[in-house]
TrEMBL record:
<feature type="binding site">
    <location>
        <position position="284"/>
    </location>
    <ligand>
        <name>NAD(+)</name>
    </ligand>
</feature>
<feature type="binding site">
    <location>
        <position position="114"/>
    </location>
    <ligand>
        <name>NAD(+)</name>
    </ligand>
</feature>
<feature type="binding site">
    <location>
        <position position="172"/>
    </location>
    <ligand>
        <name>NAD(+)</name>
    </ligand>
</feature>
<comment type="function">
    <text>DNA ligase that catalyzes the formation of phosphodiester linkages between 5'-phosphoryl and 3'-hydroxyl groups in double-stranded DNA using NAD as a coenzyme and as the energy source for the reaction. It is essential for DNA replication and repair of damaged DNA.</text>
</comment>
<feature type="binding site">
    <location>
        <begin position="73"/>
        <end position="74"/>
    </location>
    <ligand>
        <name>NAD(+)</name>
    </ligand>
</feature>
<protein>
    <recommendedName>
        <fullName>DNA ligase</fullName>
    </recommendedName>
</protein>
<feature type="active site" description="N6-AMP-lysine intermediate">
    <location>
        <position position="116"/>
    </location>
</feature>
<feature type="binding site">
    <location>
        <begin position="25"/>
        <end position="29"/>
    </location>
    <ligand>
        <name>NAD(+)</name>
    </ligand>
</feature>
<comment type="similarity">
    <text>Belongs to the NAD-dependent DNA ligase family. LigA subfamily.</text>
</comment>
<feature type="binding site">
    <location>
        <position position="308"/>
    </location>
    <ligand>
        <name>NAD(+)</name>
    </ligand>
</feature>
<feature type="binding site">
    <location>
        <position position="137"/>
    </location>
    <ligand>
        <name>NAD(+)</name>
    </ligand>
</feature>
Amino acid sequence: MEQLIAQLNQYNYHYYTLDNPIVSDKEYDRLYDELVALEQDSGIVLPDSPTQRVGGETLSGFEPHRHQARLWSLDKAQDMDSLEAWHQRVLRLINDYNSKNPDKQLPDPSFVVELKFDGLTLNLTYTDGQLVQASTRGNGVMGESILPQVKTIQSVPLTIPYKDGTIEVQGEGIMNLSVLQAYNETAAEPLKNARNAAAGALRNLNPQVTATRKLSAYFYNIGYAESKIFADHQEMLQFLRDNKFKVNPYAEYFSSMDELKAELLRIQERRASLDFLIDGAVVKLTDMRTREVLGYTDKFPRWAVAFKFEAEETSTILESVSWNV
Ligand code: NAD
């Protein structure tokens, strides 16, 4: 376990802090799952285990920013069996609550499926309608202030119609694949992958460099709102659209888990035709009161799960072989 932790923490440093991973996501996920299995079997979780924390360290060149509301990682399901296990846990938690609170029953669960964009998490702060801060997720509590960099994303509104106090809007900064291709046609140093291109540009101290990458962003959550309450996910997404945030048109709603599972397979088939990277789909409960009751572990919400697709890239060691002919 100690060896795995040391290895994963080193990979995290390259991925989150330097935006320059040294192993594929597939390899990282394989080792991470091995650690999770060891922790479950032994009942021991060492204090510096990456299973207990969100993201990585912040870069020293940026001003630290404390989020109003914590940002989270996501629980993962690599296949339909572990998705079903998540579903059963959700049902159990809802039933437990309902049996103890007969006068405050939670509704039967309904789900939304969204794409899991592969870029850099963004947290935007608006106060009385003005964009006053933008930050990375960092360790979920403290992130890096990257307001000038985020302002280079043309679709991010600098002011919004909603002027009632402070809200935090979360989304993902991405580089479209067509933009990456066009960039690489003339770039002195071609960029390897759209995720690292977006994350590296947003965490570049020079916003002029960020601007050359022509980034985009999709927004999908309000983490904090001083004076606004949403009944469900649909209402929250509508609020984002009404305030001119770029929300991906794809969001499908389900009450049946079987139909939801069939949809996940369809997304997987459509993945290659998208103009941006996704590393899976996110399944979330839609009802906000149920989200509040189910709450969070140290690392992720119990009311959502990432259904991960097989990583597209994988790493190979090329060995030179000499032939004695
Ligand atoms: P995560 O996979 O737990 O997912 C949480 C993130 O998903 C959020 O921060 C958000 O930015 C993003 N997201 C995208 N679309 C979303 C949507 N519709 N709704 C909600 N959130 C959405 O994030 P994580 O913990 O930072 O990443 C873990 C993954 O990163 C690993 O599974 C691995 O694949 C990869 N990783 C790779 C390396 C490496 O060295 N290759 C190192 C560390 C992590």
